Amino acid sequence: MAGRRRAQETRGLPARIALSGDGPIGKQIYEGLRQAIITGLLPPGTALSEKDGSEMFGVSRQPVREAFIKLVEAGLLQVVPQRGSLVRKISQRQVEQGRFIREAVEAAVVRLAAERIDDDYLQALAHNLEAQREAARRHDHARFLALDEAFHHLIIEAIDCLPAWSTIENMKAQMDRVRYLSLPEVSPLEMLIEQHAEILAGLRAHDPDAAEAAMRRHLREILSSLGPIAQRRPELFELDS
Question: What is the edge-to-edge ordering of all strands in the sheet holding 77-80?
């Protein structure tokens, strides 16, 4: 076992990735690998076999195979003949398309939330926003991004429309990779927190127009950061035709 772990480390693979303990094992493996790809722990071009995944998580190959299928669907993994599975490079086109669809869904969601949201969800969003500020003070980018995701998820929960999250989850995978790369130089945390505060202000005022405008501004931020990041780290991006 120690020899296999050393071999994985030599190839640039993490020896072990911890499971979250929340939900079916296949879902936990998918989320663990998804996070590792988004944060660059598994960078573009990394070869990844079912055997590697099995050893990283200490599980059989079957749930790893299921997670790989979902990662291919999310555009994070690709199967290359004679080479196996590789972590995909970032597609600017997929980032732009995913952002477009996400904006359409979340703009509709936040309008409805502005009409329906109750005090409990407003309070939960306010607490989340304070936690974002604390993460920014600590320069904890991974924590901030987790809170950012939770902020958007809470708004969807507030209108009891969780299928909306399922709709955008895969589409935003490429966006999440760019968002992680954009912190903090291209997209300062303080700016993103202020954008969240504007969304919350629209919800508190029960003003659908203000909430929607704030959400659209926030989700379009990635368009400003995508070009500079692709120029700075071209090796991470596909050459879209």
Answer: 47-48, 84-87, 77-80
